[in-house]
C-alpha cells in the first residue's frame, strides 16, 4: 500500500507529495530558523497522515496538543514518574493510540529525561506490537545536542542514546523518526546522519547553510538560497520526496497551535492615571513571598583542603549507547556499490539529456540509500566516470595503454565535451564506424544534429581529430595523437545504436 501525502505546492504549481510508506523506511530531517515554518510543516504532515499511520509527538512547547480535538490524539503530560512513562509508552504501542507527549513547563533536564524514558519505552515494546509509528520530535536539538550544555552529563547521555536508537535502530521496530531542529550545528551528527529525506527552510548562519547544502548535494554557492526562502517554504530532497532538490511551499493546516507568532496590536488609549495604575500596589502583593538571594556562608579553607585531599572514587567508564554495527566495506565492495548507484542513475530514458548536476544529486541519494557515506565521489570524479561510461568502452579497452592516452587527451576539452570526445576515441581505437550525427548529439545531451556537426568542427579546429570522407560520403574521424581512426560511418543514420550505458 502506498500513501501519497499532499505537502503543498512545488515548482511550476504542481502538487508536492510525500510517499508515506517510503518515509517509514528512510526517516526525515527538517531544519529552519525560528519562524521559518517548521511547526507548520510538521502539523501539515501530521494532519495529512493521521488517517494512515499511528503518530507519537514529542512536544517541548505543548503546541501539538490541539490535534486531540480533531484527530483524537491523547495528550500526555510529561511530569510523571519513570514507571508511569514506561507503562504508558508500552500501552501506546500495544493499542496503537496516537498521542502527544507535552513537556511544557518543565526545565531542560526534566524534558530530556521524560522524552528519553518515553522513547525508550516505545523502543523496548514487545515484538508483537512493532506496528509502524511516526515519531515526530520537535526542537530535536534539545534532546540530541551536539555539545554538552547546562544539563547534567547523565541526562544528556540518556536523551542522546534514546534519540540515536530512534534514528539508527528504530526502523526494524516500526519507529520512523521525523526530527525538526532550528540549527543543524546544534544537532548531534550521528542523529542527523541517519535521515535520508530532508526539508531545509530559511537559515542565515554560514555554518548551517553550508551543512544544509552538503546534505542536499548542492554547491557552496547555492547555499545562499536558504537566506532568501520565505516563511513556509522548504527545499526538499530524498527518496520519499523528490530525487533532486525542489522548492516546496507547505500547504494550509486545519488546526492551530496554542501559541502563535507575535502580532502588532494598537496600544490602549492614554490614561491620565497611568502612574497610579502601576505604582499603587495590589493588597494581595503584601501576602506573596518575596524571593531573596541568600549569600552562602564562606567555607573555611581548611575544610576545602581536607575535601580536596580525600581520594576520589573513580566511576566506571560510561558505556556508549548501543548502536548498530556498520559493515566495513573493502575498497572493491565499495567501488561495486558506487558503480551500482551510478548504473541506477543512468538507467533512465532521459538520463542522456539531463545535466550532470541533476544526475549527481540523484547519485548522492542512491549512495545514501546504500549507506555509502563519507565523501563517496566528488562532482569532478562523477563527471569523469559518467564520460567513461557513456563512451561505451569495455573493461579491456579501459585497461589498455592507448585508452589511458585518450583519457589524457580528453583533459584538454571542457567537462561537457569529454563524453563526446571519448565516444569518438573509443570508436577509433576499436575500429568501429564513426558515430552518426544523432548519436553524437545524444552523447552531448542534445537533440540538435546541427550542434553535433559544429562540435566535430570544433574538435578539428583544436587539432584533436581530422574529419574526412570515403568515396561513398561516409564520415571518418582520425586521431593523429592516437594513431587510429574510425571505420566509415553514415552521418545521417538515425537508427544508430544508443550507447549501452544509457
UniProtKB/TrEMBL annotation:
Domain AAA+ ATPase positions: 24-291
UniProt keyword list: ATP-binding, Nucleotide-binding
Keyword ATP-binding among record annotations: yes
Annotated organism of origin: Rhizobium setariae
One annotated GO molecular function: ATP binding
Source superkingdom: Bacteria
Keyword Phosphoprotein: no
Compositionally skewed regions (Basic and acidic residues) per UniProt: 309-332
Protein's UniProt name: ATP-binding protein
Chain intervals for the UniProt region annotation (Disordered): 308-334, 480-502
Pfam families: DUF87
Entries under PANTHER family matching the protein: HELICASE MJ1565-RELATED
